[in-house]
């Protein structure tokens, strides 16, 4: 009797697994059959809109962009993490989400366990800028001045615990300089005071910095990415200026709820990679300040893992506290 019950139990489990597999395949075949929603946390929604237009053309379904910038993206991430895992609710993820996963002690969701990576869409550097009237002409000038007059110089950021803050803290640690962090509520507010001479320098996201650099109001002295920025190829990286381990970039990717069927995630990945490799999309992404990519699921997962590790090290060494 016991043996028969075990056989029935085994066959039942097998049947359930088979039904799940059939259901997953059917879902992927029919997906998408209704509009998709991309939830955006802090930062620009440009890539969500650029890719959304193409996906609508390809799939015949509207892509709705839903901005939820409050609480540094915590609300946006939590909304997606707790949504139905069917592929219709997506998160435009950024470096703010990896930082929050380290910095915030009581997150309502787990970024790595409750969300699944789909594709890394693009990266963008932070450009270290000073006022155009500043005597500082290079990163070496800034480091030398900071060491000559410790505590006198400062740097602005778009807020405590933001990627721009971590970029400044990373420079402070690697160059062994004593500079003060001045957090603002937005990159625009920091740039305003930089233009007014209230702060000395700032790592500004490329899309926000470029207009001021082109109008000769701000001077670019270094970029945060491991490679030179294609839009400003004459500006050296921080790594080239003597800090080879320095690398921090802003980025946009796509995440979905962790329990989304693998077949749906793969279909989403294939579509986003296809879109990001189209010349028209790449041109729009570059115009918006991004370096377009489009990655595999596995590559994006490793990228996120490395980003969290890098953030953890800077936050721990700098004793950075939650805002």
Helices and strands in order:
Layout lengths: L1 H29 L5 E5 L5 H14 L3 E5 L6 H8 L7 E5 L1 H9 L7 H4 E17 L7 H10 L5 E4 L5 H13 L4 E4 L3 H9 L5 E5 H9 L3 E6 L25 E9 L4 H15 L2 H9 L3 E2 L4 H22 L5
Parallel strand pairs: 1-2, 1-3, 5-6, 5-7
Antiparallel strand pairs: 3-9, 4-7, 4-8, 4-9, 4-10
Helix pairs in contact: 1-10, 4-12, 7-12
Explain what you see.
By secondary structure, the protein is α/β, with parallel strands linked by helices. It has two domains: 35-123 and 250-318, D-Maltodextrin-Binding Protein, domain 2; 125-223, D-Maltodextrin-Binding Protein, domain 2. Helix content is 47%, strand content 19%. The protein is built from twelve helices and ten strands. It has helices at 2-30, 46-59, 74-81, 95-103, 111-114, 139-148, 163-175, 187-195, 206-214, 262-276, 279-287, 297-318, and strands spanning 36-40, 63-67, 89-93, 115-131, 154-157, 180-183, 201-205, 218-223, 249-257, 291-292. Helix 7 crosses helix 12 (297-318). The longest helix has 29 residues, at 2-30. The radius of gyration is 22 Å and the shape is globular.
